[in-house]
Every structure is written in structure tokens, then in C-alpha cells.
Design goal:
The protein is α+β, with helices and mostly antiparallel strands. 51% of the residues lie in helices and 8% in strands. The chain has 2 domains: 180 residues, no CATH class; 187 residues.
Length: 464
């Protein structure tokens, strides 16, 4: 499998979208038509380009501000992947040059994503924390302020070729200039920010942050996981100096540290959060009153930790663990009620609840569809009112997955978000007979403009 096919098939759409959204067909098309762009368009010369807009999708996060996911136009995403493929070795080398990154990207032939960190968070971060803290007395913790939304696209050639060389040569002979140009054209010529969601953005962010790390960080006294930094020292003064050095390196690439999340802390501190340790080690019996009591204890602890942990996805972790618990039929109704509470209390839990329910339905467990309707309807209405499309999209997917009619109030609230992902799910539900009032979706086409394929709703575009 080629780099191009794999990245287009498993690294294009954001991982947070419901299962129906996949790009394998697009990847197959690009493989069968390798000269598609050259044959169809002629605006890709040295001075010309193809300007498009991003599809936006609001993502809710536990205890955090929402994130704006973006889906680039397929033509520009194909252009970007082709440009990366032609310089794959060089770009990957630059992205992996950091002496401190725990999130170094690896191109993978198999797995859910085409480009992902070499190690999982649970393996990489505890190992690196232990190493950088082994003789330290203090740590400086910080992160990059609004990392993806604040990345300056011109920093891509600066990181790949050095800033002086890139400023002296703006031509297409430097691959960084080409990547910069395509990224800008994919977001309506905006130079600030890169799309959150595609693997290509993760790869380019690691190129830039690796260049920062090479200037600012020592392997013995620091590590980075995506945009989170931990710098160690024997004194507060050492940590303060390390922070200043990091700030200067970030500023060189037009980035800044997040002041609100910057602190110097005295060691010792836990290597892992307490809630991770407690919930990970929890074991369930296979059935009976013992398992009933353990489910209560497990979720009681998870709900307690949710209050204490603040911005961490405790309940998402808890529901995922429940997938491997082998819940007995005599406790299945009780488990569904506990999962319903978790999904209602914390965003990003619903996808895992739906996955768990689907798993047990495949094993001929009966679903409490009355409870499921209440949960899906409640989440749909709450997050539509807050204008957060991700939870609404997953609620609509829940109706589709379990073949439940969608209430008219949910249909209208979801429709009015004017979100392409939600709209496509609604159209699918109507096609499958889960929306009885077909006229409820007649307003969808009102926000698809004449320049639909190049515009911000290209995902809804249909050929004339």
C-alpha cells in the first residue's frame, strides 16, 4: 500500500467522526487515477493555485473548551498528500528529529490511523516522566497556546529548510514552500492555523515543534507529548531558564506558551494520575451479585474522579474498560443505566457507549430502547442548544445504529446547526425511514451556495 493511498484512506477525515464517514473510496479513486489533478485542472503552475474553504465541525471535550475540527477540500488534500509523498523521507526525518518528543510520528500500514505516535500515551509519557525526573527537584509544565489554530503556515518551510533560507527563496524548489502554499489554499489563503483532524496536520505540527525542540530542549531534562511540555531541573532557577529558552524558540516560529497552564512544581509528583491507576486495576467478576456490587463500586469511583480530575476524560476511560468486563445478563440492565448516566454527564462518552451497546447487542443481549431514546434525545437537544455538533452527530448516529425513529424536535434542532456532518447523518436517517416528516430537511440546501464545491459546505455538494 502506498503512502498516498494509506493517508487518504485512514488519515484524512478526523478520527472523532461517526463510523459512516470514511474515505477509502476516495483513496481508491486517487490510486486508479494518479494524474487526476494534472489531467482535470491547469491552475497548479508556479503562480497559480486552487483556493477552497474548510468544512468545520465543533467537537465537545470533557471539561474543556470546544475544539474546531476541519475537513479540507478533497482536491487540496490530495495535492498535499502527493507533495508529502514525494518528500516523505525528508519530512518524516524532520518530524522525528526532536530530542524530547514522545509523540514522534510513524507511518503505519495497518491500524486505525495512517500516521500516529510511535508509542501510546500510557506507555510513552510515564516512561519519559520517570527519566526526566530521576535526579530533578522541580519541573516546569506548560503547553503551546492554541497550537494548531496558531501555527503560522510559513513556519513549515522555516522548520524544513531554516528560516533564513526559506525567506531568501520563495520558489517551488523548496518542498516546504509547496506544502505552505497548499495548506494556505486549502483554508481560503489563511496563513494562521492548520486544520485540526487530518493526519497531515499532525505530521506538519511535529515538523515545526521538532525544530523548536532542537533549539530549546535537552533529552535529559525534558519531554513533549504533542504540544505539552515538561522540563526538569534541580532548582527553580533552572526551570525558569528552561522556560525562557523554550519561549524564545517558540517565538522564533511565531508560537507562544500557554501562560494559564504554565507552572513550576516541586517534586515528587505522581507519574500517573490516581484515577488511571485505580480504574485500570479494577477487576469484574463474570456475573451475579458480586459483579453487580463491582459495577457500582467502579462507577462510583469513576464519578468521584470526574469531579476531582476536572478536564480529563475519566468516564470515557471507564466505559471503554466496560467493553472487556463480560457483563452478565442479570446485570445488563443495571450496566446500561450506569452508562446512560456517564454519557449524559461527560462529552465524548457517547461514542463508546454506542460501541458497547452494539457489542452486546451482537451477543443477543436485549437493549433498553426506551432508556436509549431518552439518552439520545437529551444529548441531541442539549448540545444542539449549545451549538456543539459532535455530540449531536453521535446522537443521530445512535438513532441510525439502533434503528430508532428520530423525534421531530431533535431533527429540527440538529438541522439548524448547519453542520455538514450532522446534515449527512440526517439525510441518511430520512432515507432509511427514521425521519417520518420528510419535509423537515427541506431547508438544508439553503446554505449550500453556488460555489459549493470550493465553499465551506463542500461535503454536501452534489453534481448538477
Amino acid at each position: 500500500m502506498t503512502f498516498r493511498h494509506r493517508v487518504l484512506a485512514s488519515g484524512y477525515f478526523p478520527a472523532e467522526l461517526p463510523p459512516p464517514f470514511n474515505t477509502e473510496g476516495f483513496a481508491d479513486f486517487a490510486r486508479k487515477n494518479p494524474n487526476y489533478i494534472v489531467d482535470l485542472w491547469s491552475p497548479f503552475g508556479r503562480k497559480k493555485g486552487y483556493k477552497t474553504k474548510l468544512v468545520r465541525h465543533h467537537l465537545a471535550q470533557a471539561g474543556k473548551n470546544r475544539r474546531m475540527l476541519s475537513i479540507p477540500n478533497p482536491i487540496n488534500q490530495l495535492r498535499l498528500v502527493q507533495a508529502l509523498e514525494s518528500s516523505k523521507a525528508r519530512v518524516l526525518k524532520a518530524a522525528r528529529a526532536s530530542p524530547v518528543s514522545g509523540s514522534k510520528p510513524v507511518f503505519r500500514i495497518r491500524g486505525p490511523r495512517a500516521i500516529s505516535p510511535q508509542k501510546r500515551f500510557g506507555d510513552a509519557v510515564p516512561e519519559k516522566r520517570a527519566r526526566v525526573r530521576e535526579t530533578a527537584r522541580y519541573i516546569a509544565a506548560t503547553d503551546v497556546a492554541r497550537c494548531f489554530p496558531s501555527i503560522y503556515t510559513h513556519a513549515i518551510p522555516w522548520a524544513l529548510h531554516t528560516k533564513p533560507r526559506a525567506k531568501a527563496n520563495h520558489g517551488p524548489g523548496l518542498v516546504g514552500n509547496l506544502l505552505d502554499k497548499i495548506v494556505r489554499e486549502s483554508q481560503d489563503e489563511q496563513t494562521i492555523g492548520i486544520p485540526i483532524g487530518p493526519d497531515t496536520s499532525y505530521l506538519l505540527s511535529e515538523v515545526i515543534l521538532s525544530a523548536v525542540d532542537c533549539e530549546a530542549c535537552s533529552r535529559r531534562h525534558g519531554f513533549r507529548w504533542y504540544d505539552d511540555y515538561e522540563l526538569s531541573g534541580t532548582t527553580r532557577t533552572e526551570c525558569e531558564s528552561a522556560l525562557v529558552k523554550l519561549e524564545r524558540a517558540l517565538l522564533y516560529f511565531e508560537l507562544e506558551v500557554n501562560r494559564e497552564k504554565t507552572a513550576i512544581l516541586e517534586l515528587p509528583l505522581p507519574i500517573e494520575e490516581e484515577w488511571v491507576q485505580v480504574l485500570r486495576e479494577f477487576e469484574f467478576r463474570r456475573s451475579g451479585r458480586g459483579q453487580f456490587s463491582e459495577l457500582n463500586s467502579f462507577f462510583s469511583r469513576a464519578f468521584e474522579f470526574t469531579e476531582e480530575a476536572g478536564k480529563q476524560s475519566v468516564l470515557r476511560y471507564a466505559v471503554r474498560k466496560l467493553n472487556a468486563a463480560d457483563i452478565g445478563r442479570d446485570n445488563w440492565t443495571h450496566a446500561q443505566r450506569l452508562m446512560a448516566q456517564a454519557a449524559t454527564q461527560e462529552p465524548e462518552v457517547l461514542p463508546h457507549v454506542i460501541g458497547c451497546l452494539n457489542f452486546y447487542e451482537q451477543r443477543d443481549y436485549d437493549l433498553d430502547k426506551g432508556l436509549l431514546r431518552k439518552v439520545l434525545g437529551s444529548i441531541c437537544m442539549e448540545y444542539a442548544d449549545r451549538f456543539v455538533a459532535s455530540e449531536v452527530a453521535w446522537a443521530i448516529w445512535g438513532y441510525l445504529q439502533f434503528r430508532l425513529e428520530i423525534p421531530k424536535s431533535c431533527v429540527l434542532a440538529a438541522r439548524d446547526l448547519e453542520d455538514d456532518v450532522v446534515s449527512l447523518l440526517l439525510l441518511d436517517a430520512r432515507r432509511k425511514g427514521l425521519i417520518l416528516e420528510r419535509s423537515a430537511l427541506t431547508g438544508l440546501r439553503n446554505y449550500v451556495k453556488e460555489d459549493a464545491f470550493e465553499g465551506e459546505h463542500w461535503l454536501l455538494y452534489t453534481t448538477p
